[in-house]
Specification:
It is a single chain. The protein is α/β, with parallel strands linked by helices. The protein has 4 domains: 10-145, Response regulator (Rossmann fold); 152-248, Beta-Lactamase (2-Layer Sandwich), CATH 3.30.450.20; 263-345, Orthogonal Bundle (Helix Hairpins), CATH 1.10.287; 354-505, 2-Layer Sandwich (Heat Shock Protein 90), CATH 3.30.565. It has 13 helices and 18 strands. The strands form 4 sheets. Strands 2-1-3-4-5 form a 5-stranded parallel sheet, sandwiched between helices. A 5-stranded antiparallel sheet has the order 7-6-10-9-8, with helices on both faces. Helix 2 packs parallel to helix 3 (67-77). The longest helix is centred in the middle third of the chain and has 61 residues, at 250-310. The radius of gyration is 51 Å and the shape is elongated.
Length: 507
């Protein structure tokens, strides 16, 4: 006796002969199925309505109602109900004909063979599974179709690209009647505004085309769609038609364009604002610096004249006045350097500074820079260590300005001493190091930014100057081919500024 390993079935067994009914029930259960039994036709109808069995197994001879009548009543409302009819040797041809008309699925002769019963049940089970899968697949395909119809405009095209069918969304989006849509008013496979050669080449080679297309409709509306076209092939691999999905992205694209235009307008407005602010700033700085230069030059010249007159006075008066005038002279020179740096910073930024390159002694430049700031270093210890004499190709005036700015910066922030070291390598490279024992820089990222000044929150040393000296240094280094590096000094604990470049070693 076979047993079922598949999912359980419910089987309604109807047989008047009780011994056979019991035997059929035991066989059905042995197969792993659920059995409901009765010998009465009316009771069988009630059981069917209550349990809805997968298979009806019955004979013609039943109490209260014949088997064929029972089948007819059940099939009236359940035409797909699976039925196995058991014939006896006494059934006539009329019963056979009637059962065929009622579309009975399987027949068994009495006495019933268990193996034949199993085969009949198994066959109906497989048909049931196949039917359920078919229904499920059919429903799935319908769900896919419904989803696509709701989401996309769909068109079907023949081998030449002519439209043969469109869905409702296609017509609704374009405001077209179905017949007009078939005429190809908008055809993604025949669009004069798109590259059709590339489209057909990709369909031939890849069987897939994905691209954005633009159409200009008769009412001057711009219609933008994302097109996906795929070829449908027969069993021989020959394309017989094309399926095209088109997604309307007109409003999305227009919105994106509008946002981009607004962003561009904002950037242009911002640039214009920046230009205007820079123009006003440059105009102010130019007027301000030039107006300051005249009185500063007068102060400097006057202090030099007074110093000459002081030489004729008595020693005590001379010393007192000379010190005060020296302070005036030094302050004037400092202010003049600041203004010169400011003017040069703007000229360097705008590319208006021209260099006059000659062979310059780096050692002499350092000495001149120290001499220029001699009044400022009286309270500091200055250590100079020239490991070699180096000549460099540079603009002497700008090189003095470069070194002077670094020296001035070191003097401002040093506590007690600064050191200047010149080194040279055999390959012609040199390095100039200017070191102080100040507090160093906490943030080195903005040191070379024009007008960038720090307060005590951003920098450990007290802020001094106009924030342009190091900007000028960096610009001059770039123009003359030098590199600049600012690091912490391990020896002094302050800042270390290193200038490197190519030079000529003299000794």
């Amino acid at each position: 006796m076979h047993t079922r390993l598949n999912n359980q079935l419910t089987i309604l067994v109807c047989e008047k002969e009780l011994r056979l009914l019991k035997r059929l029930e035991s066989w059905v259960k042995a197969m792993g199925n659920i059995a409901y039994t009765t010998d009465d036709g009316i009771e069988a109808l009630t059981l069917f309505e209550r349990e809805r069995p997968d298979i009806l197994l019955l004979s013609q001879d039943l109490k209260s109602m014949g088997g064929l009548e029972l089948i007819e009543k059940i099939k009236a409302n359940n035409p797909l109900q699976a039925v196995i009819l058991m014939f006896s040797q006494f059934d006539d041809n009329h019963i056979v004909k009637k059962s065929i008309d009622l579309q009975v699925d399987k027949y068994l002769n009495k006495p019933v063979d268990a193996t034949l019963l199993f085969n009949a049940v198994d066959a109906l089970y497989n048909e049931k599974i196949f039917h359920e899968e078919f229904i499920a697949q059919k429903q799935l395909l319908q769900d896919y179709k419904d989803a696509i119809d709701k989401s996309f405009n769909v068109s079907v095209h023949d081998k030449e690209g002519r439209i043969t069918h469109v869905n409702e969304a296609f017509c609704a989006t374009l405001r077209l009647e179905y017949e007009d849509a078939l005429k190809g008013v908008l055809n993604p496979l025949d669009n004069p505004r798109a590259d059709m050669q590339a489209l057909w080449r990709r369909l031939r080679e890849e069987n897939l085309y994905k691209e954005r297309q633009t159409f200009l409709l008769s009412d001057e509306r711009e219609y933008i769609i994302d097109v996906t076209a795929v070829g449908l092939k027969d069993k021989y691999g020959t394309t017989y038609e094309y399926l095209v999905f088109s997604d309307d992205v007109t409003e999305i694209v227009k919105s994106a364009r509008k946002i981009k235009e607004q962003e561009i307008d904002k950037k242009l407005q911002k640039l214009e604002h920046i230009k205007e602010v820079n123009r006003i700033k440059d105009s102010f700085l130019t007027i301000f610096t030039h107006e300051l230069k005249t009185p500063l030059n007068s102060i400097i010249n006057f202090s030099e004249h007074v110093q000459k007159r002081i030489a004729k006075m008595d020693a005590q008066t001379q010393e007192s006045l000379s010190e005060k005038v020296g302070i005036i002279h030094t302050s004037g020179l400092q202010m003049l350097d600041m203004i010169t740096n400011l003017i040069d910073a703007m000229r360097l930024r705008d590319g208006k500074v021209k260099l006059q390159t000659t062979l310059v002694s780096l050692n002499n430049v350092v000495d001149m820079a120290l001499a220029k700031h001699s009044q400022e270093v009286t309270s500091l210890k200055v250590i100079t260590k020239y490991m070699a004499e180096v000549d460099i190709e540079a603009d002497e005036k700008r090189m003095l300005q470069l070194v002077g700015n670094i020296v001035s910066n070191a003097i401002k922030y040093a506590h007690s001493k600064i050191a200047i070291v010149i080194r040279a390598e055999s390959d012609g490279r040199f390095s100039l190091e200017i070191i102080d024992d100040g507090d160093g820089f906490a943030d080195k990222t903005k040191l070379f930014t024009l007008f960038e000044q720090y307060d005590d929150d951003d920098m450990t040393r007290k802020a001094k100057g106009a924030g342009v000296g190091l900007y000028v240094v960096r610009q001059l280094c770039d123009r003359m081919g030098f590199t600049i590096e600012i690091a912490d000094s391990k020896e002094f604990g302050g800042a270390r500024v290193i200038i490197k470049g190519r030079g000529v070693l003299k000794r």
